[in-house]
Design a protein that fits this description.
- By secondary structure, the protein is an alpha+beta fold.
- It has three domains: about 70 residues, no CATH class; about 90 residues, DNA polymerase, domain 1; about 140 residues, Intergrase catalytic core (hpI Integrase, Chain A, Orthogonal Bundle).
- It has 13 helices and nine strands.
- β5 and β6 form a beta hairpin.
- It is elongated, with a radius of gyration of 28 Å.
- About 5% of the residues have low confidence.
Amino acid sequence: MKSKIVLLARVQQKFVPVPFYKKQPQIVPNAGSYYARFTENGSRVMKPLGSDFTNAILTFQNLELAREYQDRNLQMPSAQVKITAPSCPTLAVKVEQYCEEISANKGLATYRKYSHNVKRFLRFCPRATVPEITREDMLAYKTFLKAEKLAPRSIHQTFLETMIFLKWCGAKIPLKHADWPTMWEREPEAYTEEEITALLNAANEEERLLLSCFLCSGFRSGEIEHLTYGDIDFKHSVWTVQAKEQFAWQPKKNKSRDVPVPEWLTAKLEARMAAGHRSRKDLVFFNACGEPDRICCASQRALLSAPSSRVAWMTINSAPPRSPAGYATATRSLM
């Protein structure tokens, strides 16, 4: 029995088989180089084929052709095999290009979410190219997501981001309104003043100041992480959300905004800046390296120590307060 030549791709430190669709090899995302594995004279051989996909396939097909001529005791011709370039990029190539564009134009969190979802679709989809994808494929994908036991909101978001990717590719898939996954909007629950008091009582001084900044400003976590003293108008107690080129950070939708904040909290930050001998270009909350601190982790201890089971970080970060004035009063009394 003649040995088979296997085409492999090296992804980081692992060798993975190159997938074939309709006898055509498909590009492996994030592949660093390609190899041919076969047995010769009783020993296993790993022959490097290079990092260029087209040249690697050309060499691989020539190895297969040479093996075929050898098995038939025929003389191998000197001319190489000519392979035809695909009429359009493969689905894997389009996914890679899309992820590169998202990485260049969106924030890190958005990139991770979008790339995770489109790569999930790539693993599911049996089609080689985008034009081959049909409405039936998308309905099957919706069924697949349900079988993965994702929450209805996660299914809808994953499906939506996949359709955004396909639209970016120029695909026109005639989905009906009923084809889309159903999503129910969850009404956020505002904390009571008693719950806020319990949370602040469980925090230490630094955590209490951090949580007060969230509760009194309504800033997102990334906005607090990148807040500098220069963003604060100490005279009028107004905080500004704006891009930070030095940290390659942009606010959501690249929009700046001004937010009035209670004067007592602004005074706290002004005193903090003076006590720490900080300048207006410095971050308010920073780690040991002077870079934006991952404040979600920094406040986790207080959140878990609070007696209320409803005290969860993501709720604080997203739910609108029922009474901003009440929050500011409860926060100030504990500072």
